[in-house]
Amino acid sequence: MPVATKLKRTSNEIPTLVSVDPTQPGETQANIHTRWHPEIPCVATIPVGQPFRVECLDYSGSQVHNDDNADDIVHLDHDSDHHLSGPFSVPGAQPGDVLEIEVLDVQPFQDHNWGYCVTAPGLGSLDDEGKETKVTKSIWDFFGNETSSRHVPHVSFQGRPHAGVLGTAPSHEILEQWVKRESELEVATSGKAGCSLPKSRGAYVGQDLPDGLREKIYREGARTSPGREHGGNIDIGLATRGSKVYLPVYIPGASLSVGDTHFCQSDGEPTTAIEMAGIVTLRVNIIPQGIHQLRMRSPMYRTSPSEPIYRDKLCFTGLSVDRDGNQTNQDGLLAYRNAAFQAMEYLESFGYSREQAYILLSAAPIESRVVATANRPNFVVSLGIPTEIFDFDILPRKDGISDEEKRKVIQGPALPSIKVNGEMPNGNGH
Length: 430
What we know:
The chain has 430 residues and is of the alpha+beta class. The chain has seven helices and 23 strands.
């Protein structure tokens, strides 16, 4: 059983409630868990109204390495997503309250100053039946708040570091509701919905527990892949330093957990963000009976005044019409996919591979907007690519793209990739 680490205090007296080693497997470390369950014991108590730090593993629990080989992505075990730090007790928090969580800072480890982005069949929302999706891994190096990748050339941008997962523990009643509705959806769709239902394989709680309780948590615990009413894997790319997140409390003490740190992510995150191990600094306050007061049905958040903003964007729109010309009734996901596919094809015209374009639409600070919903039967979504992140001009021009420009992109370092037959095993969460 892993040995719990002692709390550390930095020179400015901000306590670190959980410490991790980003180079070691998540299932060997204390104070980590990979399921949601109300009976997972809290590992520390949050000082309400005071800053505290939490060290977090990347979502895979250190399965991915900084190299030019994608073998680790092929063998990535998604049954163990995500490796979360916590849970933490919030003194005084009671069911019906809301936690106001101030994101004071999110940073990578100084000696682990890199992240990665992944594509794989069955993993993302832009898998295209007409085209093959390869397993790929791109490594992104961090320089302060800027990042670039040797595997996606001629691009650099400012990050918006954030925790992809912030969540409170469900009550037993909430947990039963999740399992019931997701199981019913799996049956109704003959498994095509891809819901991550409870599974003992991959479950982990890095604390000493009685065998009976451990087995119960592993058997009943909700998977962390989808975001739900409690927060969880909601992947809000705008929840960077200076933002606030509001989460409901379902059990006494709230049992707040955090993890899945990202250096940057697009709106929509069609495949993985730039995943990283990171250090999150938070401050938590309680809004008594906030669920009723705020009319809360799902998480709320407040954007940050310090978020990097790119003003000049080339925007693509999508309608809810499928590729065969069939009209759907306001299918928002289809509209998003249509906008994204058009953007990907445009980037491919400059020499980027389909996977490199896919990565950019997930990792870069891409802005997605719901443009119009009232004009039935279409639902209109736009996707804006910042022009300033490229070191060449991507704007439309009369004379088209020169062969020299294409060669400039194509001649960059190869993207580590592997072809696989069919979908990846356990590939429905990130």
